[in-house]
Amino acid sequence: MSDTPDPTAPDPARPTPAATPFLTFQPSKGQSAREAMELYAGLFDGEVVSVQEYPEGTPGAGTVMVGELRIAGLTVRCSDTFIDHAWDMTPALSIWVECTSDAEQDRLFTGLGEGGRVFMPIDDYGFGRFGWVGDRFGVTWQLARSGA
Fold first, then answer.
1. pLDDT > 90: what percent of the chain?
2. Residues 132 and 93 reside in one and the same domain
3. How much is the pTM?
4. Looking at residue 114, what DSSP letter applies?
5. Do 76 and 53 belong together in one domain?
6. 52 in a structural domain
């Protein structure tokens, strides 16, 4: 046996890190962190908590350096990047939303899907009423009907 402590073992003296989803938008591809935050805050009755812009005279001036919003009990950070990246948003990572009614699920699916892409229309796929949609910014949303 080794006397070296297991770095994966819980340690009450070690602070617990906080994890927050961070969405990076590419204005060169028609994406906008500000527009996305406004859409999400409106659809989810959330709030844009803060927006810090890139300063005038710098690359990306006037776009979002970092923004934070709260939606559906989740804090999300967003940014516009002035660098053209070869990558883009991927449906392999999506935001899961538990909807409390069919009407809420339909409203969110329609609002998020405007100008976006439907991966799975709302239907019962054997695990309850469910829909998967990508919004016009490339972020994907899995909308499940809780308690259905």
1. 84
2. yes
3. 0.86
4. T
5. yes
6. yes
